[in-house]
Structure formats: C-alpha cells, structure tokens
Fold these 2 entries.
Entry 1:
Amino acid sequence: MNVTNSLKRLRVRRSFKLFRMDRTQITLMILLTAGGVFMILPLVYIFNHALKPYSELFLFPPRIFVQEPTLSNFTEFFVVLRDSTIPITRFLFNSLIVTGIGTFMVIIVSSLCAYPLAKHRFPGHKIAFSIIILSLMFVPEAMQIPRYVVVARLGIMDTYWGHILPHIAAPVSVFLMKQFMDQVPTELLEAGKLDGAREWTVFYRIVMPICMPAVATSAILTFQSIWNDASTSVLFMQNDAMKTFPYFLSTITNNLANQVARQGAAAAAALIMFLPTLIVFLVFQRKVISTMAHSGIK
Amino acid sequence: MQSEIKPAHIPVPDSAVKSRLAGLFREIWKYRLSYLFMAPFAVSFFLFILVPVMAAVGLSFTYFNTIETPRFSGWDNYQFMLSQDVLLLKHALPNTLTFALLVGPGGYIASFLLAWLIAQIPDRVRIWFVLAFYAPSLAGAVVMNIIWQPMLSGDRIGYLNSFLLKMGWIDEPQLWVLDPKYLMMSMVLVTMWSSMGVGFLAMLAGILNVDRQLYEAARIDGIKSRLQEIWYITIPYMKPQMLFASVMAIVGAFKAGDIGEQLSGLKPTPEYAGHTIHNHISDFGLIRYEMGYAAALSVVLLLMIYGFNRLSWRLFGSKGDE
C-alpha cells in the first residue's frame, strides 16, 4: 500500500516537473504572484513611461501603462546629448568609475572591519560597534556643512576621490556583514588556525565564502546608493567634467520643473539610469540565492 | 589612625592602576591585527562620519545661519525646542511617533513574513519574487509617488474613490492625501508597501541560510507544524539578521519624512498633518538656514531613535548581541 501510494505521489510530482512543487507551494505561488504584481508596478511604470508619447506623459491622474508606445523619447534624449557641451559618455564614464571602485572598496573595507568586530574580543569592540550603530541613526542634513569642510580640507574637491571617499565608511554594510559573521561557528575558525592558517587566510578562505550572501546584499545596497547619488557632484565638484550621470539627469529636468520641454528625454534617461541598478540587483541577488541553496553553514 | 591608613593605601591603587594599564596595553598589542583590519574603516569613518556628526553636535549649541560664523548660545536651541516650538511639539513629534510606531513594527513583521514565504517557493523562480517585492525600494521614492497618485487621487476618478463609491461605502469622494484626517493613514499605507528594503533582503538571506538538517532533526524530535519550525528553529537561528532588520526598521521609520510631502504635493503638508521631525529638520536647515537649531533637532532625533532601539532590544531580550 505504502509503496503504491508514494509511487502515485511521485507521479503527481512528476507532472509538475518544471518546478517540482507540492500543493502548498502552488497555493503560495498564486498568492505571492497576486501580491507581487502589485509590488512590481514601479518597474513596469519606469519601462512604460520611457515609451510614452507627450500626449500621455502628462495625463492626470497618471497612467502606468502606455497606450501608443513610441521611441521618440530616446531620439529626444540623444538630441539633448548632442547639444550638451560635455559628451554624455564622460558622465557615464565618471559614474561607472566612481560606482565601480566605490562599491568594491566599500565591500573590502566593511568586511575587513566587520570580521574583528564579530569574532575578536579585543578591548573596545563593544564601544566601536555601538558607535557605528549610533552613527547610522543620525540624519544627514545637519552633517552636510561639516562634511563639506572635511572634503575641502582634504583637498579632494574635483577629483574622483571626492566622489568615492565620502561613501567608503558605510555603517550599514559593516552592521550587515558583522551580523552574518556572528553566525560563523568559532570552532571553524579555531580549526583553521590549528591547521596553521593565519588571520588573513582564515578571513579570506573561511569567513568570506560563508558570508557571501551578506557581501552580495551589501553590494546591491552600495551600488544603488552610489549610482543614484547626485549630492557629491553638487557639493564637491566645481568642474562640470567631473560630475556624474545622475547629476546630468537632474539638469535635464531641474530647471523646468513644471514645463513640458524635455520631459520625454527625462523619461528615457530615467530608464537608462535605472537599468544598471536592475542588472546589478539580479546578478547579486542570484548569487545570494544560489550560495544558499548549495552550501549553508554546516 | 588616619595617618596610618594613608601611607598603606596610596601605593596599592597606584600599582594596581599601573598593572591594569600594562595589562590593557598587552591586550591591545595582542589584538593588534584586529585593529589593523579595522583601520581602513576607522579612518574613513572618523573623517566622513564621526567628525561631521561631532561638528553637528557642536553646532547644536550655537546660532548658525550658514553664512556668519557660528555664535555660541549654550542650551538656547534645546530650550526653545522644548518650550516654544509649537510646530514641533504639536505636530512633528506626535506625527513622527504615530508614523514610526505603525510603520516600524508593521514593516518589520511584513518583511519577515514575506521573506519567509518567498523562502518556501522553489529556488528557480524565487529571484523574480524577490525582485517584485523589492521593486519599490529599487525604483526609489519618486516613482512610488506616481504609482500612488492615481490610486489615492481625490476626485471621482481616483481608483480608491471610484471603488468605494461603486460599493456604496462612501457618498462623496474623499481627499485621501489632502485631507488632514486621512493623510497620515495614506502615508503609513504607502510606506508599508515600500518597506521591503534592506531588512527584507537580510532576513531572506538569513532564512535561506538556516541549515536544512536542523529542520530534519527537529522533525524527529517531534516538531510538527511549520509555525513551530519558525518559532523554535528559524527565528533563534537567524537572530543576527532579525536584529539587523529591526534596527533598520526603527531607523527608517523615524528618519522618514519626504513621503507626506510627496503624496500631498504640498510643503508643508496640509495643516501639518504629515509634518515629521525630519521635515522639521530640513525645514530649518535648508529653508530657514537655521543650521544650529536643525542640528539640535537632529541630536534629539538621534536620542529618540537610540531610545527606541534600546526598548526593542530589551523587548526581544537580545542583550548579548548589542
């Protein structure tokens, strides 16, 4: 009896071969899909908005879906580009350099800092961690002017460092990685050390691979915040050639807040601006999910 | 008597202090590698966060209009805040508290539930659900507003109004974002919708991180329902991520401010119904150019956030992780 029953169940499972799901999973998928459709509207909107002709861009109340898609916004965007004194590729290049180096450095610096915070009982580790947590509760507005003074004194105005360095200290990344490193069993590190591994090797070979999900998650966060940040361009860059893409984007629309001109170009630019974030999210989130499915801490 | 005790006592603490200091130095030297690991972060943290925050705290004791040099004014800013700033005491403070107490725990619980549900579905499709639920955070605040404007629009065409009218639950269209009565509710609703942020991602990673053998072991030990699994295995195991998400939820809820102005399209919000402390800070700092007072407000907000974090840590009893 039992054998035939389980055989039957096996056959039922086979019929959903694609995902190999049971019944609860299917119900769940349906419910989540319903919710997900509502949640994903912003993405749908960004894509649709870029394809809207002028007659639809200004509808009130705004519509999410485009009725008569057109590529004219992109043509307009390229006209704007042609007219700008500094080639758009320069802004894009700046943005890529700054975001690429910035994200990489944040990951390295944060994980280096999180490891001793999580695993070493050095004097002052509690205070150090508390200060980092406290700093993330402070509202940035009041810090703007002192921060400007620091950047000016360091002499990094109008350099790439002026974009990158203010982002390097990322309390959220340190906090996130420290929390994941807390979960790494200390015995594992001890075993590594018994085998003759030095502190650096333990960190690089044991802790980092286990904490890949945290690394990927903070990479997503950091990329998102640096890529979208126009404030370093506004505050620390006087030379237009050193400014970044989001700043350029804001110049398309800023001076014409309630005007019609260039709104199409802005919609197209918003999509172009958004695509890298989306790609980075997908790549790194996939990493989070796949490292989980196959390893896990044993 | 006294003269006898004194000479006996003085050398003892002296040598004790000395040996303790020596011990501390020895300890610090032993952990020199730990400090080396932290050095890059420490330097940049000091320059770009600690110094500016300290400067802001210093500015909170001055009158500073961003043009003239700051003039020391002692506790004046704080005194004004507690005794005369009617807008703060009557609107910003209660609004912030209401908003944070609804959105903080609400968003936190919603993120955990969704993260758990998403962890239950098959690996291959999971990423698309994560993308969908993270979409509001990914797309940013501006887009969020455009999605909700048609929903909450105050005329008959607004989706919510037309639905409620059709059902006969209301007789005339309601101004969901312009009526001071409803603005706070709309703000909470929209923020909840977009609250699947970094805490959600961290908790999802934490749930997926739980060793599957633990569940099997627990099943043998007599755990039957999924709820028991969550309570006895998932949550204890992923405590670090839960703590991270709770701190982020509290910080996010208290720092929020733009949402009210974006939804209503007015600055300040109608009858200050959606005026939060964060609005108050940018109002004083960036519009009235009273940086000293804005800094004082930031300090008070920091203290509030810290207080609520302590409270939540005590509630969840995770003192050891602090």
Entry 2:
Amino acid sequence: MAEYWYFKDGFEAKAREFLANAPEPDLNLEFTVGKRDFVNAGKASAEIKLSLKRIGVEGAILRTVAISSYEAEINCTAHADGADILCNIYSNLVHVIFHDFGPGMKDIEQSMVPGFSTADDMVREMGFGAGLGLPNIKKNSDVMHIISGEGERTYLEILTYF
Amino acid sequence: MKLVEYIKEIKGQVLTKVPHLEEVEVENGYASDLLSDVMGSAGENMAWITIMRHLNVVAVASLAGIPIVVFSKGIIPDEVVISKANEEGIHMISSSLDTFELAGILYKQIHS
C-alpha cells in the first residue's frame, strides 16, 4: 500500500493533531455511492454542502468542499466499484472520508499529475476523465490523504477548515 | 450585463422556469465540456456554455455555484435534467449558435 499526503501551508501540525485525536464530531453523515451510478453520484456532495450551509459556513468554503467532494464521489463511481462516504462536521472544519470498494490505484503520484487518466469511453462521454479530478481535490482542500495499492480499497480523506 | 440581453442576442430559448430571470446579471463566462475543468474554473455570476446535456451538468453547476447554463448547437437536454435545474434554481438556455459564436457574443457584450 502506498500513501500520499498534501497539506496546504500552515495546516500540517493542526491537521495531524486532529487526525491523531479523532474527536467526536458535532454532526455525522454517511452515504454509499454505487459503481457507474452517474445519476446518484453527487447527492452526497450536495447533502454535505447543504449541511454546512445550515450551520452558516461561508459561500467560498461551501464551494471548495462541494467541488472536492463531488470530484471524489465521481472518482468512486467512475474508477472504483463504489464507496462508503463518511462526513464528520465540527465547529471549525469538515472531514470527509471516501473508502471505496477497490480495485485500487497503481501509482498515486502519477494519478496526481493533471491530465493523467485511466477513464474509459463511458466515463469520458459523461464529461469526466480529463485527469483533473485528483488535482482539483488538492486545489480545493486544506489537507488531502490517500492510501491505496493495486487490488486494494482506496482510502481518501479531505479536511477543510472554516 | 443582464442575462436577458444576451438571450435576445443569441436568439436563445429559455428552457427553465426559474423566477426573476429579468434581474439575472452575467459578469463572466466559461466554455468547456469537461466537467472537472468547469468545476475548477467557473463559478458565481458566470454563464457556462456547453454541449454536455447529462444530469451531471446540473450537479456541477449547482455544486460550483454556476447560475446559468447555455447549450450550443440547439441542444436541449431531457426533461428530467431541465426539471432538476428548476429545482436547483439554475437557468438553462438553448441556442442554435455554436460554442465559438456563443462565447464570442457573450465576451463582446460583457466587455463593450
């Protein structure tokens, strides 16, 4: 299994402390997205965005979380056999975890390169598969963490501070 | 610039019934059919010009905060897509012009 970390400048110390402590969230949401289910993919992201809006999170951050979640949701439906999605909301941050059902990533670093894609024709016809999903997640998160390997379930977590 | 001025210029057909169409302002635009590219680049007060007509277009517009989708080449999405756009408050317009022409007219109108 390989691991990938991205921390926006100034976020590493507090994010590592948060992840090590794993505190109880104020609100917890759970979803499942199915393989190739492009009709329902996006519902979890919409629900997460709405929940954050309700607690007064500002528009620019709502957009950031919505984009990173949606890209991840599409990855789970387009490239994996679906996924369990867990969203923990705190007073100062949102922690979204995508634990897919495999088949895992061969090379995480390569998948992070804009333009690299393993998408097939069906995914491309849907308007995805440009190789911008993971780079967009990185661009729209404070912390991004991936654990994956060929034939394994991929674990992706995203932290966004308010 | 008012969206209705653009609709008039491109002889656009308004597909949705989102209220207050006359008051909608367009400040910028983006033309792309790659959804991740759109999410990374388009946003508030923008008109997004595309030939993509799948339901994912509504999800992308809604999540990225894009208020207006303009379909080029006379493309009209399925009723389920239009109805979802109505629910999400996203204006959908169809024009027989192609993406190049639609983007050119929008650019000219915004920057004149």
